[in-house]
Design brief:
This protein has about 475 residues and is mainly alpha-helical. Helices cover about 70% and strands about 5% of the residues. It is a multi-pass membrane protein.
């Protein structure tokens, strides 16, 4: 199609004068503005992928890229008198982000509160004190990663289990590397069958494409995805005993009740979505109020609690207990909010806005036409999982949701599965993998993970086949 070019003096780029689309506004896929946006996004994502080596937080390049892309879009749309259309698209993407931001912020605040109350430290100390050998620890950390990640999200779970592996692994680099790979695979697989297990599953649930209970159809495929590579890798883990010393960890006051409140918060979010069809984020924000009121209760009753503990410690002549009482600080909800993964939350903003901009330019519609019209949707969804191993699964899934292909429930579950577990094939393919490369720097590496990619890919293929066979009636 022939197009006339306008001189974009504001940004020094030329943009095509395209035809108007009834649904997406201007078609800028063949314009210089469009190509420039792709280049900007590509450069930003290369910087994100090089985060481990550049020591540059991943939120910075995508935030800048989002601003540049929308600046170019705004200029072109203003030139064509369609600025209101661009503003509506911008506000739509901002609303999408706001819902996910608040949802994740509450979840991260609860996880941070549990960490502050030493729940994770207690779990770690328990595993170390039981005297498991390396192979037992390999299975224990993997299974716990699979079980915990549907509730605490795959990133938090992976970091928790990695801390255990580093503590017991010591100088055994071979064990640490293979155990970290196992944790990444298990955490990603466990997160695939729960709306709370990964950002991508949360996005699908909030979009109303899969109900809360329907995610359970992915449980067995997720188990298959984890078990197959774990069984193969376990033969390469020695049965020798690690040199570790056990320690006692005392839970802080209110720790177990915070877990109960988190479960109640999840139930509230599900109820808002299932009963009154409101976004789950409303229930999550209500759940934050539970934690705030409980924090208020802990602060008000702290002096009385300390006096009681001090009396018991004095009666028992327990000097260690007296020292612990002296180090007690009041519980502060807003301090827990500040400990949320803000880099991840801001990175997500950049991704949502960049992908939203590329959608308005017309690229996602073009890709959707190829993948979901010309290809079989099953193969398209398999490819989504492979792409998520190279590019983070968040932009890949957001792109699919923005395309809005006409898929059956079985295919929506399939793309949820593939986007969730496909990132396990490479260490850079998931947030859990990237985080563990930082936490176990030099011990768990990109090439150390790459060596086991064929085994992990075998689990990926098997989980897809399992889903196609078990849930055939959903397609």
């Amino acid at each position: 199609m022939k197009m006339r070019y306008l001189l974009a003096t504001l940004i020094g780029l030329s943009a095509a004068s395209p035809a108007l689309s009834a649904t997406n506004g201007l078609d800028l896929t063949s314009s210089t503005i469009g190509y420039a946006s792709l280049i900007v996004f590509g450069i930003a994502y290369c910087l994100v992928m090089g985060e481990e080596y550049l020591q540059l937080r991943k939120s910075k390049p995508v935030l800048l890229a989002a601003g540049i892309i929308w600046l170019m879009i705004g200029y072109v749309y203003q030139q064509h008198g369609q600025i209101e259309l661009a503003k509506q698209a911008l506000e739509h993407n901002l609303l999408e982000y706001a819902e996910l931001l608040l949802f994740l912020l509450v979840a991260m605040t609860y996880i941070s509160a549990m960490e502050e109350r030493r729940l994770f430290d207690a779990l770690q100390a328990w595993m170390v004190s039981k005297g498991f050998n390396f192979r037992s620890l390999f299975w224990l950390t993997g299974i716990l990663s699979f079980i915990i990640s549907p509730i605490a999200d795959n990133l938090t779970t992976a970091l928790l289990m990695c801390a255990v592996v580093l503590k017991v692994g010591g100088s055994n680099l071979r064990f640490i590397n293979i155990a970290c790979i196992n944790i990444v695979v298990a955490a990603n697989a466990g997160g695939a069958f729960s709306p709370f297990g990964d950002i991508t599953t949360l996005m699908v649930w909030q979009a109303g494409l899969v109900s809360f209970m329907q995610f359970s159809d992915l449980f067995i495929p997720s188990v298959v995805n984890y078990i197959i590579p774990a069984v193969i890798m376990s033969f390469f883990v020695p049965k020798t005993q690690p040199n570790t010393t056990s320690e006692y960890v005392e839970l802080k006051r209110g720790a177990k009740r915070i877990v109960a409140l988190f479960i109640l918060t999840i139930a509230t979010a599900v109820a808002f979505h299932a009963v009154v069809h409101f976004p789950p984020v409303i229930g999550m924000m209500m759940g934050l109020a539970y934690l705030q009121f409980f924090g208020f209760y802990l602060r008000k009753t702290l002096p009385r609690s300390l006096e009681r503990k001090k009396a018991i410690a004095l009666a028992n002549r327990d000097e260690e207990a007296l020292k612990r009482i002296g180090s007690v600080v009041p519980f502060d909800v807003f301090k827990r909010v500040s400990h949320a993964e803000w880099d991840t939350l801001l990175f997500f903003y950049g991704v949502v806005m960049c992908v939203g901009g590329l959608s308005l330019l017309g690229y996602l519609g073009m890709v959707s036409e190829v993948m979901y019209s010309q290809w079989n949707p099953v193969w398209a969804n398999v490819m989504v999982g492979i792409l998520s191993a190279i590019v983070d699964n968040i932009p890949v899934m957001f792109a699919v949701l923005t395309m809005q292909p006409d898929l059956t429930l079985g295919n929506w579950l399939l793309v949820t599965l593939t986007a969730g577990v496909g990132g396990s094939m490479l260490s850079i393919g998931s947030a859990a993998g990237v985080a563990l490369m930082g936490a176990a720097h030099g011990k768990y590496t990109f090439f150390g993970h790459l060596k086991w990619m064929p085994v992990i890919a075998l689990g990926y293929i098997a989980s897809i086949i399992c889903h196609l066979l078990l849930n055939n009636n959903l397609f």
